[in-house]
Amino acid sequence: MSKGILILKSFKTASVLGFLALVLICLPEDQTDSIRNLVRESFVPGSEIISWVKNNSAQIKEIKVEPSKSNEETDKKTIALETEIELLKSRFLKLKSQNIKLNHQISSFQNNGKPEFKGKKTEPLFIPNLLEARILGKEITNKPYAKQILKIGSREGVSKENLVLQAEDLLVDQGNQQGISVDQMVLTGRTLLGRITQAGLHTSTLQLITDPDFRSRVHIYPADSGESIASGEGVLTGSKNNINCILKFVPTTQPVSVGDDIYTKETTGSLPSPVYIGKIIEASHQQDEQFWSIKVQPAMKNRHPDRVQVLRTIPNPKRLSAKLEPE
Amino acid sequence: MIQHIIFMVLTYIALLLQVTIREEFIIYSIVPSFPVAVLLLVCLHSKSRQALIWAGLIGFLIDTVSRGELGVTMFCALLCTGVLPAAWFNRKKISLIQFSIRALILCSLLIFSSMILRQFLQGTFEPNPEFFMTTFGTCCYTVLIAMVLRQFGMITRLFRRNSHSRLANQESAYI
User: Fold this and answer.
1) Range of weakest confidence among A35-44, A167-176, B88-97
2) Dihedral sign, CA of A73, A76, A80, A81?
3) What pLDDT, in 10s, does the model give residues A210-252?
4) A62, B34, B62, B66: least surrounded by Cβ within 10 Å?
């Protein structure tokens, strides 16, 4: 091939490539970005390998540094670690033996129907127990379709044209199956929130203490007296404004003052102590009146909490285990 | 053919090093250019036409990993390789000194022209002695890397020619 042809070929190549380069220079950035990204993406596997090598080399360096520390320090660390291992070993053995013992108790209970642990026959047969429950109102009313669903139907006499009025009662997600029954107390933050008015299979209706239909016998405890003896008793009802409560049937012969505490009156014997309700905020009476006119502010902070506790009574497992023992 | 595959692998590694661990090789704020080092090695070990193609390709790849307009380094690489005498390319027996001088000239032309053109296009070109000193330092550093690569290739015989290249070498003897 002659020199001239080779030079011409080289010139052609250079011209074509040079023209291409000039076209690339003239291209706008948004169009060249896709080309750049395409090329850069091809470097991803390689850059990952390099970063892995870099990280590993750093770790190797760290390992190499370790022997340069003084032997004394290393010895101390070794002794401390060995001691720790010994302690953990002994703890492990202790837990292992405890586990074996518990497993044995469970298997004997399953086989014989008798528990290994023995309860006393003098234990109370029923004990109070708080059952955690959720208020269903919020979840249901937040759904767009929920407002159209009622838990009653034609069997209860509901027909097509009946008006639907909003009820004040709240719905909790526990029912008969969980041992909920009517008149059980419902607490929130260890203060009285209301009581169960209807108990279904899975849900129950809760009546707040501020409900006008609510009725409960309560005790008045004088404020700041330090005494644990009730100064009087009455009947707590809700009010029309659904915010405060009214204490009725407290004779004017009994001493009552603003700030006195109101507690539930314990009658069943299942509760270890009365439940706090609130404080008296107003107390007055006319000369010829027989009873005080008392207004009570409930202690519950949130009238519509997400979670409540239902106070129920359950059979005492200790007593039941004692009952299984032969005479 | 094997030679070209080796060049391609070298180009990929050089670009990878440039985008990942370039900072590890900075000496006195002088940044080396690994792809340019490979470009020097490839161009000075290929025939003039092949050198042009390689210069264009590596220049384009350098542009993709650099800021600014795409095609600037490609254009400069083609221009610099084109203006150099054809006798500089594809010489089998070339001393290290000859290689280093030719590489330094090619590298300086390429790096200076591409940097000036890039800055000119962006409107940020301000000639000052510091710029020239740093750029020349980059050129020297890059040539040094190219020399190391060449020596490594010579020892391991990575750049030995196959039969096809030998024929091509005979053809180039006319040039």
Assistant:
1) B88-97
2) positive
3) 888 888 888 888 877 666 777 788 999 988 777 889 998 988 8
4) A62
Domains in chain A, CATH or no CATH each: 2-60 (no CATH), 78-113+129-315 (2.40.10.340)
How far, in Å, are B19, B149, B157, B167 from residue B145 at the CA level? 17, 6, 18, 30
Does B51 map to a domain?
A: yes
Domain count, chain B: 1
Confidence band of B173 (pLDDT split at 50, 70, 90): very low
The per-residue pLDDT for range A162-200, each reduced to its tens digit, is 444 445 568 888 888 888 888 888 888 778 888 888 888
Chain A and chain B share a number of CB contacts under 8 A equal to: 92
Domain of residue B88 covers 2-15+31-156
**H or E segment and range at residue A262:** strand A261-264
The answer to whether A22 contacts B16, with C-beta atoms less than 8 Å apart, is no
Q: Are A280 and A296 in contact (CB under 8 A)?
A: yes
Contact B119, B74 (CB under 8 A): no
Q: Which of A1, A10, A36 sits opposite B171 (nearest CB)?
A: A1
> Complex ipTM, two decimals?
0.71
Q: Write out chain A residues lying below 8 Å of B169, CB-based.
A: none
pLDDT of A95 > 90? The answer is: yes
Residue B65 included in any domain: yes
